[in-house]
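Hello,

Our lab assistant flagged a job as stuck in the queue for most of the afternoon. It eventually completed. Since we weren't sure the result was trustworthy after the delay, we are filing this so someone can double-check. Below is the sequence as submitted and the structure that was eventually returned. Let us know if re-running is recommended.
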Amino acid sequence: MAAVNLGWLLWAAIDEAAVPNPSALPALPAGATVLERSVDCGSGGCWRELVLDTGDRPATDLTSELDLDEPRCRPSLPVPRRVCTDATAGPRDRLVVHARFAW
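-- returned structure --
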């Protein structure tokens, strides 16, 4: 049984198609509207993405409310890697929030 558990942990650590759970994304402040939810993949792995309508607020204000002025990483147990979240201002009052696994 220990070998199965160890195998699962090793696979979870190297699986490039893995994406964090939706709960890895920050809770949205009042007034933020989700326009799109997606899971995307590229050569560096996969990530979860939210596109938010910032309404009449600048994207930088919403980024601060989400506490994502800087990318944030935290442990993701039991998987031996971190979950990193970040936010990027997009066109037309949009904010794009990402959650991905990192080493």
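-- support follow-up --
The delay was a queue issue, not a problem with the job. The result is valid. Confidence is low (pLDDT under 50) at residues 4-14. Helices lie at 2-14, 59-65.
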